[in-house]
What does this fold into?
Amino acid sequence: MTLTTEEKRRILEEEKLRRQIKGKSVVVSVILSFFIPGLGDLYCGSWIKALIFFALDILSFILVFVMGIGSFLYVVVWICGLISAWLSANKSEKRKIKKIDKSLAQES
It folds into this structure.
C-alpha cells in the first residue's frame, strides 16, 4: 500500500505540528532544580520565579552558615523549587499549544 502525495504531506505537517507543540522537558526541568533551585524555572522561561528562587536560595544558604538557622528554610526552598520547576514545564507546553491555536485561527 502506497501513500498519495496528499497523505504524505498531511503526515509531515502533523509531525511538524507535534514537534512544535512539545514544551520543555519536565525531567530536565526538575533535574536542573534538584541541583540549584530556580534553574528549572529559568530553563522553562519563568524568569521572575527563577530570580525569586535564586534569591531565596542565597538567603537560606547565608542563614545556614552565618546564623546556623537556615537549614529548614533551605529544605523548604529546595522542595518548592522542584515543584515549581515541574509546574513551569507543564505550563510551557500549554502555552505553546495556545500560541499555535491562536496562529492557526489567524490563518483561517
In short: The chain has one domain: 5-107. The helical segments are 5-21, 26-35, 39-44, 47-67, 71-107.
